[in-house]
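User: I'm preparing a small set of examples for a lab meeting where we compare how different chains pack in three dimensions. I only have the primary sequence for this one, and I'd like the structure in token form so I can line it up with the others. Please keep the answer compact; I'll paste it straight into my notes.
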Amino acid sequence: NDARTNIAIALSAAEHGATIANYVEASAMTFDGKKVTGVKAVDNMSGEEFEIKAKKVILAGGPYTDLMRKME
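Assistant: Understood. Below is the structure token output for the 72-residue chain.
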């Protein structure tokens, strides 16, 4: 069951220190030179825009990966 697998992955990530969120969309990547340092994001429930900084960014967009790669 895909939903259960995704929930298990999210919970495991949270147990290891990750912050998880639902209804949040990455709108752009942020850079320091050529290195990706995070993303600009939008909360699709409230419309709030904010930046998420990260040591590592993984493009895990499934069928939307090509759209995400265009942000690079």
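A couple of notes for your slides: The helical segments are 2-15, 65-69. The chain is about 25% helix and 30% strand.

User: Perfect, thanks.
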